[in-house]
Amino acid sequence: MRLSGINKTFKGFTIIEILIAIIIIGILVAIIIPRLATRADLARRRAAESDIEEIRKAQEHAGIDTGYYYRLYVLDDNPGGDGYGTGNPNDINDGLRDEILNQIASNPIRMFISPTTGEMYNDTSAVRIYTKMIENETSFGWQGRYLTWHKDFNNNDIPDDPWNHDYLFFTEKGLVLEPDGIIVETCSFLPDGTAVSGSSYNCNKFDRFTILSLGANGVPGDGGADVNALGTGDDIFQQW
Q1: How far apart are alpha carbons 2 and 216 in whole angstroms?
Q2: Is residue 72 within 8 Å of residue 55, measured between CB atoms?
Q3: What pLDDT is recorded for position 123?
Q4: 31, 109, 115, 188: most buried by Cβ count inside 10 Å?
Q5: 210-227 pLDDT, tens per residue?
Q6: Domain for residue 146, yes or no?
Q7: Which of 36-40, 132-136, 147-151, 186-190 has the lowest mean pLDDT?
């Protein structure tokens, strides 16, 4: 007995069914993508909080060891050095002395900050401290490196936050302007988040030592014109 074949007719999806599927997928994407973005931003914020805690501890340890706080660029340096700046063919041992040579163009002597007053030591006092440091780092108390940078996107030897902006160091006197070796009471910011001398923002609003990240938007606060925006909006900071 021969069984006859069974013919089946398969229908494709109708246009309405396809449209419904597209709508459902769109709804799911609209729900999932923001949640993923929120999680990623939260992870970056937590990383920034952890970095800031490390920088605070590094400053405190350096303060205990030597009696001074420092511009951030020097906190990642080991003791010693051979007296040749990085890039010199004779350089074989990067250390604190070499780092200072690398920063000659940006007031390297002005790197000592009083933990009690928040003031940066002037040239005369700084030279005295600097000379003591260079003569004998061991007796001076330098036990660095105090910190290892996780990121330095623009290679300026200042630690970067998860959004590739420099972390900012404030004393009660104002913002420690790293490239210039000065503390400023007012400041401005370039489009890449770099702090410069200017009058856009009040930079002496903090009454304690403060490490701050500008957050995801790379500008103080929410990016408005408020001169007191630092430390508001999505800014992340810790004080001590």
Answers
A1: 74
A2: yes
A3: 83
A4: 109
A5: 999 999 999 999 888 899
A6: yes
A7: 36-40
Structural domain count, the chain: 1
Distance between CA 206 and CA 84 in Å, rounded? 38
- Structural domain that includes position 108: 48-239
Confirm whether 38 is domain-assigned.
no
Residue 119 has pLDDT above 60, yes or no: yes
Whether 202 and 227 have beta carbons less than 8 Å apart is answered as yes
Residue 203 lies in a domain: yes
Place of tokens 């006197």: 173
Question: Is position 25 within any domain?
Answer: no
pLDDT of residue 174: 97
The three-state secondary structure class of 125 is helix
What type of residue sits at position 141?
G
Of the candidates 39, 154, 155, the one whose C-alpha atom is nearest the C-alpha of residue 86 is 155
Question: Is residue 180 a contact partner of residue 199, using CB atoms and an 8 Å limit?
Answer: no
Residue with tokens 């300026």: 156
**Predicted model pTM:** 0.78
